[in-house]
Amino acid sequence: MRISLGAAVLLGALVGTGLTSTDVVRAAEKTKGKSELAKGKAATAGQKSAAPTVAQKGKGQALVHKGGVEPVARKGATKPVATRSKTESVAGKAKSAPLARQGVAAPGVSKAALRASKAESDRLAQSHKAAALLESGGYSRGVQRKNLTRVIAGNVDLWQDPGQLAVHSGSALVVPQDGGEPLYEKNAHAVVPIASITKVMTAMVVLDSQPNLQAPITISDDDVDYLRGSRSRLQVGSVIPRETALLLALMSSENRAANALGRHYPGGLTAFVAAMNRKAASLGMTRSHFEDPTGLNSNNVSTAHDLARMVAAAHRYPLIREFSTTSGARAEINGRELGFHNTNQLVSSPTWEIGLSKTGYIQEAGKCLVMQARVADKPVVIVLLDSAGKQTRIGDANRIKRWMESASLSGRGPTRV
């Protein structure tokens, strides 16, 4: 049997120990095996160190070439990098990602690779969460400003910050009353039914005709809602002053009062509806259309942007401001005094400074709300359309208010989103 020089030296050292020849031979074979293994590792290391290098074309960036990453030289020096196919890299991440989330390394994956995989998994999860909230117009806490996502809405560059505001209404708009850039918008150009928001336009058209507000008008069968069967305490045959009808239409969204106002317009209801559409056109409400003075007709449609124009215009009418923000009133109907209340509970809140308000609801439109209000010492118009829940529009309005106030306290003003 042949043995290497190293084994021979070991054999000589072991002879004086009293070990048997068999033990000596086994030790020699073990030493030979380790020597061959060391040679194999040295050869592999030599092959890696011989990997080709390339000069850096993009400072500090690896160049992907034919499925591998070529080495990059920094500041004139070359740094060899072992090539690895893109497919192998992706497969490795896919293998380690599920285990990384559990804090367990896959076979052959180092702790450093485990930490990197977990960080990537967390980053992707946060990104997907922010994207989902962005699509729904919402926000999530804990996302830094550097992760703002830029979107285009209505040819206006907006910045969605996933850490501040969540609006759940289908369409929404917050815009300065003077018509400046929107502070927030969501589906604000979508044409949708507007329900009793219509009555703001009804009030403007009535007042534009400069009628005698003390003149009596009569509630007739033509004013009864046979389309949807909505209730009213204004019985057929009731006679009330035009001013009272206007108050009840704006404050309590009284459908019979609104329809009676249109019927008593010079030329009747047809002329009144035509005047509504002319008024809308004069205000630049290019995507709006009206077919009745109440909003019970789902063909009364508009956009959040158009309605913001309408609210800003209506705010110039003192009587509309007063009547739409009155929290409650008593009116004499057929010799009886009845109490009526505002359909927007926020007008009674001491934390709100509301200059104009109108709610609306039919099934096709969902819950709607438009307001002119002073928030964080800024006069703004808020439009919320197509809200599903009973309190969604109120919750959205309060969230917008807190968002603006928080931005004001921070000294940076509300961020356009």
UniProtKB/TrEMBL annotation:
Keywords: Carboxypeptidase, Cell shape, Cell wall biogenesis/degradation, Hydrolase, Peptidoglycan synthesis, Protease, Signal
Active-site residue numbers: 196, 199, 253
Matching SUPFAM superfamilies: beta-lactamase/transpeptidase-like
GO molecular function annotation: serine-type D-Ala-D-Ala carboxypeptidase activity
Pfam families for this protein: Peptidase_S11 (PF00768)
Gene3D superfamilies in the cross-refs: DD-peptidase/beta-lactamase superfamily
Peptidase S11 D-alanyl-D-alanine carboxypeptidase A N-terminal domain segment(s): 164-387
InterPro entries in the record: Beta-lactam/transpept-like, Peptidase_S11, Peptidase_S11_N
Signal sequence, renumbered to the chain: none
Residues annotated as binding substrate: 358
A GO biological-process term: proteolysis
Presence of keyword Signal: yes
Protein name, as recorded: Peptidase S11 D-alanyl-D-alanine carboxypeptidase 1
